[in-house]
Amino acid sequence: MSEEITVAEVAADRPHALGEDFLQVENLKVHFPTEDGLVKSVDGLSFELQRGRTLGIVGESGSGKSVTSQAIMGLHRGSRAQVSGQILLDGEDLLQVSDERLRKLRGNDIAMVFQDPLSSLHPYYTIGNQIVEAYKVHHDVKSSVARKRTIEMLDRVGIPNPQRRIDQYPHEFSGGMRQRAMIAMALVNDPKLLIADEPTTALDVTVQAQILDLILDLQREFGSAIIIITHDLGVVAEMADDILVMYAGKSVERGPVNDVFYTPQMPYTWGLLSSMPRIDRVREERLNPIRGNPPSLINPPSGCAFNPRCDFRHEVDDPQRCVDEVPLFDPEQLHPVRCHIDHARRKEIFESTIKPRL
Amino acid sequence: MFAYTIRRLLAAFVLLILMSMVTFLLFNASAQDPARLACGKNCTVEQIASVRHKLGYDKPITTQYALLIKGLVAGRDFPDDAATKKNAPQTITHCGAPCFGYSNFQTSLVSTLIKERLPVSIWVAFFAFVLWMVFGIVSGVIAALFRGRWPDKILVGLALVGYSFPTFFIGLVLYTYIALQWQLVPTPEYISPLSDPVGFLRGAILPAVTLAMIYIAGYVRLTRAYVLEAMGEDYLRTARAKGLNERTIVIKHTLRAALTPITTIAGLDLGALLAGTPITETVFNFNGVGKLTVQSATNGDLPTLTAIVLISATFIIVANIVVDVLYAYIDPRVRYA
Fold first, then answer.
1. Claim to verify: residue B218 and residue B75 sit in the same structural domain
2. Cis link prior to B98 (omega < 30° from 0)?
3. Which chain A residues have a beta carbon less than 8 Å from that of B235?
4. Which of A13, A48, A257, B280 is surrounded by the most beta carbons within 10 Å?
5. Whether residues A235 and A275 fall in one domain
6. A interface toward B at CB cutoff 8 Å?
């Protein structure tokens, strides 16, 4: 695997503009009332992000990744979702601002790349029309200026022949080109925060790499903060500075990309890393899935939500704590982990049992 | 696009020929003797024979069909025989193209009848169409935007009530109360909109409202369903994420997607309505094609019925083509398929 080189390379030439937190999410909760009960999609999530840095949020389906990103965009407004906590963007609480203010921030300061570019683009309008619209809503310019800007953006994201492509409809674009157009639309206003929700899921691997490179290039150029949401650990390894692992609506592990990848601490993260298929192993050992199913978000398991699937409960001095008590997550640490197993013991287990299998 | 239109037109032409054949066969398959029907109850054998000869029913069936088509394209004469033309040209009735035949009941050429009656039906249908499109779609959009709240419940409830009443009942209630009892509008009558547009609107409002009621009910529910469907689409989330204001999101993004399928249904409904509405025209005593249909059916006026069937079929086929071609303009994805 060329992963180490890639991570090192990417980490080396990225501006680590560590400074003030640009985005600060504090105790975010997004709950959906349903007939069956309250679905706690996101339940007390906190993280922060600085300009020029990339945060990768990983987790399986239903762990609350996409719901989090939509909460930042304010897309839950007007729905039945109950959102609480704080989302501070440059000091401004996105959960408290007026609808009009939020509308002005959307697309201009915060932009989003959605996962399925075909269904996320309007089938009845040309690509150009949709990008021009995104630009004009935040800039009081003539159509010809917006059009020029759009052509420039299409060119920037590597769409050949943009003068002609601008007047085509989404169905006339290939999957990779559509995603590029989607990125061009998201970046047309030079957003300070870009949220990419599984931007490469629908694409084949070669196109995936190009799209990811493109996002990184644009970040270098504009110094934007990026949140990349994915269940593909390879994507995170390539893109992110920090990783946040989510499980059942809560963060379970967070840290710099190298720490989380090379010394993961939480049994769920071990499971995630082990479940990556390895082409260089014999067939029987290639795939090690995490046993069990994702937890119910209406009645999550008590204590640590991962406890029913955890193979390491016996490592806790009193295994009953896993069922009774939610493990603490100390955001002040560089690499916080939500687990009852003793810190030193976790390192030992990883070195002795997990690492050889990865 | 051009080739597509041409293909559709050719297909429609073939369909029309087939349609005329079927109608003609049905005409002849009836157990009744068309000449006897045309002549009336108290005809002698000689009179029937003379009518049969005059209308051409004494010729072989294939010749009769050929004459029908010839009449439609080039016109024909009744009776169509050289001897009479030579000896008594004054007894010949010439029927110019498009000739649908001669109605002995109305003692008139069918085409003359149709020319008189068709505008009545078409204008009333258009009036109703405008009413139901405007009110149906606006109510449907409002219902969708207020889903689950009281405007939605009231509109959908009203639509259901409107849908449940039969046309003749709605027509009679409107006629009795609005026109006769409260005299809010003048007694319904047809005035040509070309000579007096305001008079037409006042005279035709009740039949148009009656017709529209049934359709409004359906269109409220359709529009509501399509708008709700569009509101769940990913591209609306994209539109919102761009920071567009709600008005642009609703009008430009939601309605554009939601109203496209409605075009199809609306075109076909209008096409079906153009060839007359028997119940409404009878209730309001409008001399349109619908009322003519009822009269012809009661009298067994076969040439008139044939003509009406052919014209209705043509309207529906044409409406289909118009809708298909229009759709290709509205939905870019269809254009290249």
1. no
2. yes
3. 119-123
4. B280
5. no
6. 73, 75, 103-108, 111-112, 114, 116, 119-126, 133-134, 137-138, 169, 171-172, 185
Of residues A103, A114, A134, nearest to B234 (C-beta): A114
With a cut of 80, say whether residue A2 has pLDDT above it: no
Q: Is residue A207 part of a domain?
A: yes
Residue A183 inside a domain? The answer is yes
B238 touches chain A (CB under 8 A): yes
In the structure, what pLDDT confidence band is assigned to residue A296 with cuts at 50, 70 and 90? confident
Q: Please report, for chain B, how many H helices and E strands are present, in that order.
A: 16, 4
Q: How far is CA B323 from CA A37, B98, B112, B121, B329, in A?
A: 47, 26, 30, 21, 10
3-state class (DSSP) for residue A62:
coil
**Closest chain B residue to A167 measured between Cα atoms?**
B332
> Is B332 in Cβ contact with A119 (below 8 Å)?
no
How many domains does one find in chain A? Answer: 2
**Percentage, residues of chain A above pLDDT 70:** 94
Q: Which of A75, A124, A133 sits opposite B331 (nearest CB)?
A: A124
* Cα A121 from chain centre: 21
A112–B330 CB contact, under 8 Å: no
B149 near A CB under 8 A: no
Exposed, middle or buried, A190 (CB in 10 Å: 0-12/13-18/19+)? middle
Shared-domain flag, residues A120 and A186: yes
- Best of B147, B229, B238 to substitute, by most chain A Cβ atoms within 10 angstroms, is B238
Let me know whether A319 and A237 are in one domain: no
ipTM over 0.85: no
**Domain co-membership, B292 together with B259:** yes
pLDDT digits (tens, 9 = 90+) for B113-132: 999 999 999 999 999 999 99
- Which residues 6+ apart lie within 8 Å of B38 measured at CB? B51, B55, B104, B105, B301, B302, B303
Give A16 to chain B, closest Cα distance, Å. Answer: 28
- Domain containing A16 — which CATH number? 3.40.50.300
Q: Using CA coordinates, name the residue in chain A closest to B260.
A: A124
Among B76, B92, B111, which residue terminates a domain? B111
Beta carbons of B237 and A185 less than 8 Å apart: no
| Lookup: tokens for B298 | 């009661």
Same domain for A306 and A353, yes or no, is: yes
Angle at A331 between CA A328 and CA A334, to 5 degrees: 115
Supply the pLDDT for residue A6: 40
- Regarding whether B185 and B203 lie in a shared domain, the answer is yes
Q: Which backbone phi and psi does A349 adopt, to 5 degrees?
A: -60, -45
Domain annotation covers residue A144 = no
* Arithmetic mean of pLDDT, A75-93: 90
Residue in A with minimal Cα distance to B327: A124
